Amino acid sequence: MPHQKPDREDEFFDEGEVNPDEKTMTFLEHLEELRWVLLKVLIAFLVGFVLVAAFLDNVANLLRWPLDFGVRENPEVLRLVTTTPLAIFTVFMMVCFLGAVAFSMPFVLYFVGQFVAPALTPKEKKLLVPGLVLAVLLFLAGMTFAFFLLVPSVIRVSVYFNALLGYEVIWSADKYYSMLAWMCLGMGTAFQFPMV
């Protein structure tokens, strides 16, 4: 009896139909297309960066919310300072970076989706848009979780243990914004695991 290959029941792995009229691109044409995608991603990021920089005071006050909420019972126990002449520029860059990432992420996913879409089968293309929307929503949910729950809780616990050990709490502003940025980006990324 000859060996037969098992039938694949999962339609996702079906190759789909290839359109013979579609023009195939050379390697250099793919690189050129990738260059344009990266340029559009950079432009989206820079637009977000400039918008945040234009409203820096409002955005910085918004980004202080986890800190203010974390010490709401005793706000005088904690103050932010800059410890070097250039630290304020680090604060500026961190605030603008975090805002630009949040602003540009939907555009980045859209441009990447446009780039890979021609290589996908029709069945895979049907999953692309819902997948991108889900990825954006999960990323924003992770950032929101970090911003409203995780960071204020970390601050509250840190202030509590500093008070328990008798330390005065004076934090560097650049360290606070750096922590906020990495926690928000980290949780946004961690919330992508349901997509895997």
Which characteristics define this entry?
196 residues, 68% helix, mainly alpha, two-stranded parallel ribbon
Radius of gyration: 23 Å
The helix-and-strand class reads mainly alpha
Q: How many helices?
A: 6
Q: Give the terminus-to-terminus CA distance.
A: 40 Å
Q: Roughly how much helix do the residues carry, as a percent range? A: 55-70%
Mean pLDDT comes to 85
The side-by-side strand order for the widest beta sheet comes to 1-2
Find the count of extended strands (DSSP E, 2+ residues).
Answer: 2
What does this protein structure show overall?
The chain has helices at residues 27-54, 56-63, 65-70, 87-116, 122-164, 173-190; strands at residues 78-81, 169-172. With 196 residues, the chain is mainly alpha-helical. The protein has one domain. Strands 1-2 form a two-stranded parallel ribbon. Residues 8-14 have low confidence and may be disordered.
